[in-house]
Amino acid sequence: MAKGYQSYRGRSSVGRKLLVALLVLILAAACGFMFLQRYITYRDDGGMSIVLPFWQLDLPAPPQAAASPPEDTGPSAEDQLPAVDLTIEPAEPEPEPEPEPVDLFGEHRLVELASLPADRAALTQLLAERGANGFLYTVRDSSGQVFFSSPVVQAQAMRGDEAANETMRVLCETEDVVAVARFNCLHDSYFSFVNMVDAAICQPNNYVWYDYKSWHWLDPDKELARSYVVSVAVECAKLGFDELLLEELSYPVSGNLNKISYANNTLSKTEALELLLREMKEALEPYGTKLSLLVTEDLLTAGKEEVSGVDLTVLLPLVDGVYAESSSPVASQALVDVLVEGEKKPVFVPLTSEPGEGSWCLTVQ
Fold first, then answer.
1. Over the stretch 173-212, which tens digit does the pLDDT of each residue have?
2. Separation of alpha carbons 210 and 203, rounded Å
3. How far apart are CA 308 and CA 107, in angstroms?
4. How far apart are CA 25 and CA 30, in angstroms?
């Protein structure tokens, strides 16, 4: 090296020392922070604590906004609601509706039968073909014959057996079918002949009277005659018929009437007929059997007939229906309404050969 020349070292040596010291401090701080991580714990209030084996430092929790006291707004909507009982009661089963009774006259469309069908299926098919909802069948005719078996009827007068009775019961029980028995009241050649004095219309010599067909009649003025007719009617009700259509509820109007003796009678003809009808109505009441009356259009127009003793103003209030051939069913119903006082009026049922509106009875040709 040339004499007089030396290198400059002062400034570079001080700077390097400062840089080294700074790096040492940074490294020491980093190591210290890492060292302290394991001793930092967090409190429930959000603050931190440094827990050293030889020293503990608490750091303040972050400030929290002061909670304002709740405003008193009175009871809440939930508090105002009434208590609700949530108990569920078991539902009671709904009662089964009772079957409605058959309306005998509101839709009274009958077919008159000369003979009974063998069973319900045959009856139902027949009624459907005729557009009917019921049938009319003769159970006691104008000679006094009875077409079923009965303990109160003489053997000579019975034209039916127990099998016929069972068929009638089955047919009468057919659902939604009206069963009407055509029942002759006083034209009788069997009981009258056997019980002339006590039950029959007689001649002055007390021998039974007979009409142009040599048939006899019962006299409703006599108690035995009334009790017999009522007993046979009750037998019909027991078979299940819904209604009895009474025919010839009257005294005879043809034949040698001048040979009849009413000398021993205690009632007028009208009174005797009324008494028989009342006794029959009372006897049938337990069975719910209705009564109807078969008349002529002329009698319906006149209202009464002296020879037969029929007075419709007396008899019609005791029955539920009136049957007759009619040229105008509406006019005939109006006549019935005039003849019967009070609110309960019998319903008029026209006898016809063709189905019509409302109630009708289709006669067999």
1. 999 999 999 999 999 999 999 999 999 999 999 999 999 9
2. 9
3. 32
4. 9
| Residue 137 half-sphere exposure toward CB, CA atoms < 13 A | 25
The reported pTM is: 0.72
- Rg of the chain over all Cα atoms, to the nearest angstrom: 55
Contacts (Cβ under 8 Å, ≥6 apart) of 36 = 50
Q: Report helix, strand or coil for 305.
A: strand
CA angle, 187 then 363 then 109, to 5°: 110
Number of Cβ within a 10 Å radius of residue 138: 18
**77: Cβ contacts below 8 Å, ≥ 6 apart:** none
Residue 191 CA, distance from chain mean position: 43
The answer to whether 319 and 346 have CB atoms below 8 angstroms apart is yes
Name the band, by pLDDT with cuts 50, 70 and 90, for residue 28.
Answer: confident
pLDDT tens profile 132-177: 999 999 999 999 999 999 999 999 999 999 999 999 999 999 999 9
Helical pair 223-239 and 269-284, crossing angle rounded to 10 deg: 30
Between CA 214 and CA 176 the distance in angstroms is 42
Place of tokens 């909670």: 67
Place of tokens 């057996």: 161
